């Protein structure tokens, strides 16, 4: 687009890779990133990603088909590596000729990257450390997302600004790196692009788009919240490998602490396997998020949100959010 020349030039490798107009991904958000939001983002020139976190292969099959009816633009599918049906889900993506698969939630299990590449799709990976990023990019990852702890949902321990300084100088020349976590405005996008990122991923800013099916109560909670309300969960038992989750503080925050105690108790008394314990925790999150997003129970459900939630003030169409991000980025680059 001629009106965003400077931003488009810095995004060129990202847009070539994604096949979208702008290298702005809407990160997959379980229950939120379904056909409506995904197609709206892609139709707006961004890149929508279906969240398959809690879906069965049959549900994913339907969701991809329904999304295709709403957009002829490219979109991706996010698969969680610990999903018990991961290989079947990859099979569903193959059946539909999905162009981009995002593997989230840990190191991809053996054979998964190969199975995705076998049907010609591009693989997007996450990595918490530079060493792991290099390993994943060597072993088939086509692009990398670095995500800082400002983000909503499951988070690592390091901030986006530090990850960007650590990863981009050594990776950006030879690899495609997208930056996520805490991005609320286009000025930040301009900054990361100048550092070598080929694009960005946002979740929180898009969760309340007009096309998002999130319950009105969920959206209202976002509009009211400020950055300091989006807090990371705490780990109560050092044995339980609980990945922290950033969400708006509510009664559900305390319920998660009790859930951890319950699962830790099962480790002691029932000899529960660690992997099973972790799966139970993840099922808990999927259920809690559903309660907030779909049922509108904002007291007891999980209101996963990043620190950029303070910049979400009203319901706006996805296209308006995408274009204001591009305008802000372009204005920032023009001022340089
Ligand atoms: C409500 C919500 C649900 C999310 N669910 C998922 C998910 O299912 N899978 C995933 O890989 N990331 C998930 N994320 C992370 C987003 O994909 C994205 O990377 C993140 O929101 C980017 O940071 P930001 O929130 O600061 O924009 C979720 C984020 C939010 C806010």
Could you characterize the architecture of this molecule?
The longest helix has 20 residues, at 274-293. Strand 8, helix 8 (186-194) and strand 9 form a beta-alpha-beta unit. The protein is 46% helix and 15% strand. Helix 2 packs parallel to helix 3, helix 8 crosses helix 13 (318-335) and helix 11 (251-269) runs antiparallel to helix 12 (274-293). The protein starts with a helix and ends with a helix. The chain has helices spanning 5-18, 35-43, 57-70, 86-96, 112-118, 130-138, 160-171, 186-194, 204-207, 216-224, 251-269, 274-293, 318-335, and strands spanning 24-26, 47-51, 75-80, 100-104, 122-126, 143-147, 153-154, 176-180, 199-202, 230-232, 245-248, 303-304. It has two domains: 2-213 and 313-335, Alpha-Beta Barrel (TIM Barrel), CATH 3.20.20.70; 216-307, no CATH class. It has 13 helices and twelve strands. The model has no long low-confidence stretch (mean pLDDT 95). The protein has 336 residues and is α/β, with parallel strands linked by helices. It binds flavin mononucleotide. Flavin mononucleotide is lined by residues 27-30, 32, 51, 53, 78, 104, 147, 150-153, 180-183, 201-205, 207, 304-306, 308. Residues 27-30, 32, 51, 53, 78, 104, 147, 150-153, 180-183, 201-205, 207, 304-306, 308 line the site of flavin mononucleotide.
């Amino acid at each position: 687009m001629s009106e965003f020349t400077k931003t488009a030039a810095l995004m060129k490798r990202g847009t070539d890779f994604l096949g979208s107009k702008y290298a702005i991904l809407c990160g997959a958000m379980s229950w939120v990133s379904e056909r409506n939001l995904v197609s709206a983002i892609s139709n707006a020139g961004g890149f929508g990603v279906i969240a398959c976190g809690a879906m069965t292969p049959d549900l994913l099959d339907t969701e991809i088909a329904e999304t295709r009816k709403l957009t002829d633009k490219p979109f991706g599918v996010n698969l969680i590596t610990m999903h018990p049906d991961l290989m079947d889900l990859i099979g569903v993506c193959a059946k539909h000729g999905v162009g981009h698969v995002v593997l989230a939630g840990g190191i991809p299990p053996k054979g998964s990257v190969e199975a995705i590449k076998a049907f010609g799709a591009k693989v997007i990976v996450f990595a918490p450390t530079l060493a792991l990023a290099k390993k994943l990019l060597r072993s088939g990852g086509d692009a990398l997302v670095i995500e800082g702890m400002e983000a909503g949902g499951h988070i690592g321990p390091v901030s986006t600004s530090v990850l960007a300084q650590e990863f981009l100088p050594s990776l950006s020349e030879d690899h495609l790196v997208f930056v996520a976590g805490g991005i609320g405005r286009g000025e930040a996008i301009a900054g990361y692009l100048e550092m070598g990122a080929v694009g960005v991923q946002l979740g929180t800013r898009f969760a309340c788009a007009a096309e998002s099916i999130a319950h009105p109560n969920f959206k209202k909670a976002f509009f009211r919240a400020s950055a300091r309300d989006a807090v990371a969960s705490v780990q109560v038992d050092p044995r339980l490998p609980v990945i922290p989750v950033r969400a708006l503080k509510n009664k559900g925050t305390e319920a998660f602490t009790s859930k951890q105690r319950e699962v830790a108790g099962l480790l002691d008394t029932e000899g529960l396997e660690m992997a099973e314990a972790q799966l139970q925790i993840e099922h808990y999150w999927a259920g809690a998020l559903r309660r907030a997003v779909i049922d509108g129970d904002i007291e007891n459900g999980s209101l996963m949100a990043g620190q950029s939630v303070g910049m979400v003030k009203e319901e706006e169409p996805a296209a308006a959010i995408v274009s204001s991000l591009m305008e802000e980025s372009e204005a920032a680059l023009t001022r340089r």
